């Protein structure tokens, strides 16, 4: 053990991280902490810290509007064609659903995984139960159980699994639900140093929804899908209670267009809405963040008076399994976020900062689009498919989401 500590000390000194040694002694039973530090990719985090404030410069001259298919403009023949194609893929067992559920419900005042948060719809239900109802509807229609892969996090994995077990998997076969953890990256303070959390562990944060690809590979979920001859997977968030994880028209559209991926969009509510929008960059599909687009482009309209850049990305995407297999071989670029992070100081005291004090690093799922040859964008109606629960009150809150849900399902 002493030799191991000496080796770790040398590793920390080589990477200018020796300050954390002052705190290690304050942590009881620090074997786990030592293992966590030993597994850190110092080359990566040093690079991330060095590049943390470099702005992503986008040549707006390379940005063009993206073509899309509007659900409301489909002819009866087109809708029937896409539905039939999608139905066959479902019946043949060639579809999987991935739900990204690594987040906690702390912003909602809820202790526990966000998926366990309850809302009052036709009755009180957790978000997980609402999502599972959509999965069960597919079995009722097609007599096929679609495999459901649920990405958890280190923080909520055990609690999520226990929640499903306690609720008997909401009537879905246990054999068709698979849990896998999201990756994490160390949080760094303003000086680029590692931090210890209040539990005495290395302070780490989930690596963003773009980490889903590597997590699928690392945990052999892609391998499992290939064994099942799955061709398409839907990847969506846990916090949208109107999400349609299995949509025959969307599946059929992507298959018919022979694309590598598809993304659902909704029309921006107003030019300045803080959402990423689909577009092309140098001819490749991408999503440009609201912070990266000029005011002129944000307000640009076409001959019909519609916004040119209006296709808001709602994180509901179809991917070919083969595309995910390729994407997951390399890490997507990481983006830094300056946050308030609790930590243990060298006296063993827990510090709760009043202002941002540390950097966390995340990958964004939509950065994968630029790696694809092509993709389809499918415009749907906001009131039919987008009822996110992100804030305790106001926009995108339980109150607004429940209203959208009740209006859609005509619940009084």
Helix and strand arrangement:
Blueprint lengths: L1 H13 L6 H4 L6 H8 L3 H9 L12 E2 L4 E2 L5 H16 L3 E6 L17 E3 L3 E3 H16 L5 E5 L4 H10 L10 E5 L2 E3 L1 E2 L14 E3 L5 H7 L2 H7 L4 E6 L10 H9 L4 E7 L9 E5 L2 E5 L6 H5 L11 E10 H7 L6 E6 L3 E2 L5 E2 L6 E6 L12 E4 L2 H4 L12 H12 L3
Parallel strand pairs: 2-20, 3-6, 3-11, 6-7, 12-20
Antiparallel strand pairs: 1-13, 4-5, 8-10, 9-19, 11-15, 12-15, 13-14, 16-19, 17-18
Helix pairs in contact: 5-10
Gist?
This protein has about 400 residues and is an alpha/beta fold. Helix content is about 30%, strand content about 20%.
Secondary structure class reads: alpha/beta
Measured by DSSP, the beta-strand proportion falls in 15-25%
Low-confidence stretches: none
Q: If you consult CATH, what is the topology?
A: Spore Coat Polysaccharide Biosynthesis Protein SpsA, Chain A
Tally of domains: 1
Task: Write a structural description.
This protein has helices at 2-14, 21-24, 31-38, 42-50, 76-91, 127-142, 157-166, 212-218, 221-227, 248-256, 295-299, 321-327, 382-385, 398-409, and strands at 63-64, 69-70, 95-100, 118-120, 124-126, 148-152, 177-181, 184-186, 188-189, 204-206, 232-237, 261-267, 277-281, 284-288, 311-320, 334-339, 343-344, 350-351, 358-363, 376-379. It is α/β, with parallel strands linked by helices and 412 residues long. The protein has a single domain, classed as Spore Coat Polysaccharide Biosynthesis Protein SpsA, Chain A, CATH 3.90.550.10. The strands form 6 sheets. An 8-stranded mixed β-sheet has the order 2-20-12-15-11-3-6-7, sandwiched between helices. Strands 1-13-14 form a 3-stranded antiparallel β-sheet, with no helix packed on it. Strand 17 (343-344) and strand 18 (350-351) form a beta hairpin. It is globular. The protein starts with a helix and ends with a helix.
């Amino acid at each position: 053990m002493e030799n191991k500590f000496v080796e770790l000390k040398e590793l920390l000194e080589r990477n200018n991280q020796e300050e954390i040694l002052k705190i290690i002694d304050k942590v009881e039973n620090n074997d786990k902490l030592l293992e966590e530090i030993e597994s850190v990719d110092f080359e990566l985090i040093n690079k991330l810290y060095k590049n943390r404030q470099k702005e992503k410069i986008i040549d707006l001259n390379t940005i063009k509007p993206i073509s899309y298919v509007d659900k409301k403009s489909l002819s009866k023949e087109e809708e029937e064609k896409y539905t039939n194609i999608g139905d066959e893929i479902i019946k043949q067992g060639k579809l999987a659903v991935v739900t990204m559920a690594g987040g906690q419900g702390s912003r909602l005042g809820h202790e526990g995984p966000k998926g366990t948060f309850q809302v009052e719809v036709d009755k009180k239900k957790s978000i997980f139960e609402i999502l599972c109802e959509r999965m069960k509807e597919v079995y009722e229609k097609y007599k096929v159980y679609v495999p459901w892969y649920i990405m958890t996090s280190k923080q909520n994995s055990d609690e999520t699994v226990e929640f499903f077990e306690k609720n008997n998997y909401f009537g879905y076969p246990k054999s068709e639900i698979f849990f896998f953890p999201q990756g994490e990256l160390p949080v760094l303070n303003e000086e680029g140093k590692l931090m210890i959390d209040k539990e005495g562990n290395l302070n780490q944060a989930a690596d963003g929804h773009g980490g889903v690809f590597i997590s699928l590979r690392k945990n052999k979920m892609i391998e499992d899908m290939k064994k099942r001859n799955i061709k398409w997977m839907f990847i969506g968030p846990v916090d949208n209670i109107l999400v349609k994880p299995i949509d025959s028209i969307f599946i059929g559209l992507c298959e018919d267009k022979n694309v590598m991926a598809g993304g659902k969009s909704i029309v921006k509510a107003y030019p300045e809405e803080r959402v990423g929008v689909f577009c092309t960059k140098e001819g490749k599909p991408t999503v440009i963040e609201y912070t990266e687009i000029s005011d002129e482009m944000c307000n640009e309209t076409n001959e019909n008076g519609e916004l040119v850049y209006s296709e808001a990305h709602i994180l509901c995407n179809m991917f070919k399994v083969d595309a995910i297999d390729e994407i997951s071989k390399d890490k997507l670029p990481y983006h830094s976020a300056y946050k308030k992070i609790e930590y243990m100081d060298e006296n063993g005291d827990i510090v709760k900062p009043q202002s941002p004090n540390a950097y966390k690093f995340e990958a964004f799922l939509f950065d994968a689009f630029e790696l694809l040859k092509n993709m389809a964008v499918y415009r749907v109606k906001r009131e039919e498919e987008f009822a996110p629960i992100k804030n305790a009150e106001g926009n995108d809150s339980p109150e607004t989401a429940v209203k959208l849900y009740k209006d859609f399902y005509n619940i009084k």
